[in-house]
Amino acid sequence: xxxxxxxxxxxxxxxxxxxxxxxxxxxxxxxxxxxxxxxxxxxxxxxxxxxxxxxxxxxxxxxxxxxxxxxxxxxxxxxxxxxxxxxxxxxxxxxxxxxxxxxxxxxxxxxxxxxxxxxxxxxxxxxxxxxxxxxxxxxxxxxxxxxxxxxxxxxxxxxxxxxxxxxxxxxxxxxxxxxxxxxxxxxxxxxxxxxxxxxxxxxxxxxxxxxxxxxxxxxxxxxxxxxxxxxxxxxxxxxxxxxxxxxxxxxxxxxxxxxxxxxxxxxxxxxxxxxxxxxxxxxxxxxxxxxxxxxxxxxxxxxxxxxxxxxxxxxxxxxxxxxxxxxxxxxxxxxxxxxxxxxxxxxxxxxxxxxxxxxxxxxxxxxxxxxxxxxxxxxxxxxxxxxxxxxxxxxxxxxxxxxxxxxxxxxxxxxxxxxxxxxxxxxxxxxxxxxxxxxxxxxxxxxxxxxxxxxxxxxxxxxxxxxxxxxxxxxxxxxxxxxxxxxxxxxxxxxxxxxxxxxxxxxxxxxxxxxxxxxxxxxxxxxxxxxxxxxxxxxxxxxxxxxxxxxxxxxxxxxxxxxxxxxxxxxxxxxxxxxxxxxxxxxxxxxxxxxxxxxxxxxxxxxxxxxxxxxxxxxxxxxxxxxxxxxxxxxxxxxxxxxxxxxxxxxxxxxxxxxxxxxxxxxxxxxxxxxxxxxxxxxxxxxxxxxxxxxxxxxxxxxxxxxxxxxxxxxxxxxxxxxxxxxxxxxxxxxxxxxxxxxxxxxxxxxxxxxxxxxxxxxxxxxxxxxxxxxxxxxxxxxxxxxxxxxxxxxxxxxxxxxx
Length: 804
Hints:
Blueprint lengths: L5 E5 L3 H10 L3 E4 L15 H14 L2 E6 L8 H14 L3 E4 L2 H10 L5 E3 L8 H10 L3 E3 L6 H10 L3 E8 L11 H6 L16 E4 L5 E5 L6 E3 L4 H6 L4 E4 L6 H19 L9 H6 L4 E2 L20 E6 L9 E8 L4 E3 L3 E4 L5 E4 L3 E2 L5 E2 L1 E3 L3 E7 L7 E6 L1 H11 L8 E9 L6 E5 L4 E5 L5 E2 L7 H8 L7 E10 L3 E2 L2 H16 L24 E6 L5 H9 L7 E6 L8 H11 L3 E5 L6 H13 L1 H5 L2 E4 L2 H7 L6 E3 L8 H9 L2 E5 L6 H8 L6 E7 L2 E5 L17 E7 L4 E6 L5 E4 L3 E3 L10 E8 L4 H15 L13 E2 L9
Parallel strand pairs: 1-2, 1-11, 2-3, 3-4, 4-5, 6-7, 7-11, 10-12, 23-27, 29-30, 29-41, 30-31, 31-32, 32-33, 33-34, 34-35, 35-41, 40-42
Antiparallel strand pairs: 7-10, 8-9, 8-37, 13-14, 13-22, 14-21, 15-20, 16-17, 16-22, 18-19, 23-24, 24-25, 26-28, 35-40, 36-39, 37-38, 38-39
Helix pairs in contact: 1-9, 4-19, 5-18, 9-11, 14-21
């Protein structure tokens, strides 16, 4: 029999919980009012959580709670209380992003089942192994991963694997997007993404000529209903439907469709599911995604639910008033009804509700079937031939809502009882089934009987009266000492209280005492200026730059280590830099593919990494897993998203010796972390911050099939006129930067836990970097200095305002 993966459905409120259960989900993921990545969903109160868990247990469903945001230092006590609440509820698992929270839960509540959030950007086998070694039970893989990689990872690890199969796609790799927080202070890592990828942009080429305009960063939605058989064949453990912000109708319709498909596979049949409900309930065009090798994922025409095409606008007569009857030619077989919603044009921007329907002869209809020419009253401007889409099917949504919110029949549970009533002690009732076994002690000690003593038959009769409960009594054994008395009401109370105790979902978990975080030793907080190059500078650039820095104490250069080619030139350059007293780090790729890992292993074995550089700047868990036990001086880049001192302590435990501050932290939050004295911190003080890294190319050359290696650059302009340089670089990955340049005039120092100020070079000329370096050198010496005049606008990023 084929292994059928768990079907995991979203719920943003109580109605969607019902929809998920009625739709056939095996498990439901949902969040409370705090610490989840969909803060704008309804989410559930603590009382509702209790109801949901009880309902899930009664219906055999699993409940996973999302605690998948980054936790600020000031929120630590609140999140600990949140975890304790879910622990007491005995939920089936927690989905977590924050590294500190993961480490804390593993140490305090080791029996809680933990799953990684997609925000952790676990991209490869080594990343899965890293979290598997910590004790994580399930790892979610990114939506950018192809099916072949999933198969290989499943073969080589024991942790459960989860993938997304349906719903909205992010433009950037999850967890690596700063666009929303840098534009308006709303962090996607904190559950408040403003969805900048669903906005309109203009793309300019290198000569500032407009190439295209539209929703250039807006992906289609993921839909793998037609690929279920291939997906199930991989042996993946869980299939996740995205949509905690969606309606109960959406949750039911999509879940029900995938449930049908999985059931057909289980029966040995081909998948044959009518997908019209899925297509209609929410549609901005679909793609099977990178999972199935589709690289045409972006849809620049549509940024919202456009619906299903049903026809086009007919010939419009001269319009003499604002409100008029619009002729529509329906496609063959399409029906339309009063209450439906329509959108017009390929972009679906113009919308109208169907309030009346007329035939050409003037006849009024509530529903039109089989007629191709109709008229509907509208306002606005339309063009002949404009495509017409239905984005709201009133009849379908009514049916879906009724099905989603239908009463849920709670299956009766078979139980057995063993009742023991003895003198001078409280009565005991053992209640059990295949899953649970409890022993309950009553609150009334039996008294000597004056008349009508208890009998076995009387006790059985009262204890067997389970009407109105969810239980069926399959067996009962009674032991009763002669001559004792309990009233019928006392026996009824004993029965009801023992059943209530059996129904409780709380289980006892041994809670370990919390240990204080300890520093690894005296911190080396010698002030240092570090210059990091995103791309390797040529010899002349480097020579010119260093000419002004020869007498600089504690200078550091961070050079990018290319792992897609066996070029050892960088090692000689680094050795020469070290000889001149410069500290050298190698930065590893933000995302690691198989070729990177193989080359990294080659360089590690050859000894080139260790003897030519002073340390390695890591950006992902794959590189951490590969290098953590080999004696390197490892620095964690900002991509690790450290937001609290517990996360610093976790990285310290895992082999990290210094870290780069998250650009989403404000100054006081960095000070709060630094006050714990755990690891030296690096603060970014200058540079065009990288806001997104993506596999989805906005240039979309006609010849591109997802394997394009051609370097290309341009600029995205948003609707407010702000610019975002974009570059396609190594391995075809897209890098989008803030057009405004970060420049901190009052950076933190070693007394705040910050040992290094880092200047990040993207493509600036030597003169600019010299000017910036001199500025920060004088700041570090506490000399009077004038802020450098840069060619671009300057920003303080989140350093003063922070993020919400």
